[in-house]
From TrEMBL, chain A:
This is Signal peptidase complex subunit 3. One of its GO terms (cellular component) is signal peptidase complex. It is a single-pass type II membrane protein. It comes from Cannabis sativa (Hemp). The keyword Membrane applies. Residues 1-26 form the signal peptide.
From TrEMBL, chain B:
Pfam families: SPC12. It comes from the Eukaryota. This is Signal peptidase complex subunit 1. It is found in: Endoplasmic reticulum membrane.
Amino acid sequence: MHSFGYRANALLTFALTILALMCVIASFSDNLNHPTPTAQVQVLNINWFQKQSSGNDEVSMTLNISADLQSLFTWNTKQVFVFLAAEYETPKNSLNQISLWDGIIPTKDNARFWIHTSNKYRFVDQGSNLRGRDFNLTLHWHVMPKTGKMFADKIVMSGYRLPAEFR
Amino acid sequence: MVWLFASVRMDWQGQKLAEQLMQILLLASAVVGFGAGYVMGSFQMMILIYAGGVVLTTLVTIPNWPFFNRHPLKWLDPSESEKHPKPQRQQPVISKKKSKK
């Protein structure tokens, strides 16, 4: 500590060590938050439902998605990525997951939303298994923190069924 | 102003004080910043308060302020050293060096 350079070096090193420690504690503080998010999805209409020339079934639907994800936000949250997936079982695959809609929520104020949309990404089956198929709509989310670990969770909504005939 | 930076060495007591001040100020600003940020729910507030603390600590501890030099070392007078002459170099040391060459 006898010269300008030694003091500057010691201060910089110690300051950055403490900054790293503060970030670690801040990321641990996320574990104190116990979120209680809610979500509802309604299928308002099946716009069309047909077999492609390649033999795969495709359906287009209008969805009404409402969710309250405000409790996911803490002081250490940068943004939340959220997507809605259709999930169903076929004889070939025990789990098919198709993303129908997604979004990035930048602030807590935007985390309570309501959206009326047709599926943003195409709902195409791997084969021809969609007629009369029961499926779940699952809202998945990834909480992206400013520092530390990313959290992911989901809400499964079941009891949806596709029509028995193409239209 | 040059004395603030490089020319004059800080005395022993001053060095200890500078190091302790640096550690206390940084830790205190970290605790205050974290507490305020957590309570206000603002990560940015934590960073701003801590950055302010680092700047303050830099200004207090890095320049060689006069209050770090209140305990100057008292060197003996040159006349004093003449009364206690340095021990003379021993012959064997010189002869060893020569023998190596």
